[in-house]
Amino acid sequence: MKKVLTIAGSDSSGGAGIQGDLKAFSANGTFGMSVITAVTAQNTQGVSLVHDIPRKVIETQISALFDDMEIDGIKIGMVSIPDTIEMIAKTLIKYSLPKIVLDPVMVSKSGSHLLQPDAVNALKDQLVPMAYLITPNIPEAEVLTGVKIKSEKDMIKAAKELMSLGCQNVLIKGGHLEGPAVDILFDGMEIRRFHAERLASNSNHGTGCALSSAICSNLAKGLSLDDAVQNGKAYVYESIKYGFAVGKGVGVLHHFHNFHEGGSRNG
Prior knowledge:
Layout: E1 3-11, H1 17-27, E2 31-43, E3 46-52, H2 55-66, E4 73-76, H3 82-92, E5 100-102, H4 120-127, E6 133-134, H5 138-145, H6 152-163, E7 170-172, E8 181-186, E9 191-196, H7 207-220, H8 225-241
Parallel strand pairs: 1-2, 1-4, 4-5, 5-6
Antiparallel strand pairs: 2-3, 7-8, 8-9
Helix pairs in contact: 1-7, 2-3, 3-4, 5-6, 7-8
């Protein structure tokens, strides 16, 4: 079984972050490991506290894993401050790295800011160039590029701007635009469009985490980038379709829908 690593923050509500990543890894047939960058106190209605993990603890978590085993894929999620970003980049560069999927998490589904403004440049300068694939949504792509995105044409323009930062591939998620959800994948030469029917569902907490983790798992298993993205989108679509409420706010994905007859919500 392929071994994949998530470097991200902990979501105490279990829907996103480390917890969501590990569920998505398992559901997509890989063995998940984690390096925790921050501990959040949150529920389905919002984030009430973020505690960033000290640099040395992050470094030691990464080193402990790489010194012991071969890692087949890395997904990087919530990295809220420059110190965290700098330590991740400084530590990872010591090792022979697999493909890295970078999900530049900035704002939670409840509207809480998870990436501090002074960390944006550090993310662009240090982690984006290490990424095989970066998976921003439209607001994140706007922050990273300065391009205002109102159409597919704007998405393509932003994707090209992101490529100039040094990553190998860009997937801009189009869920924030009106109409069918269209994602744009750019590899520096060709534009590919991935369409999905828009679901009328409030169960979308952790969708970005799940997509990037599913893609990371698929790449680790040897799938092509196109197939990894297509399969990842199909997985997230079904996870939203069979999502459910666990609290008073945003609903969660059913990460393990494919292990339950008819996508049952009830185990």
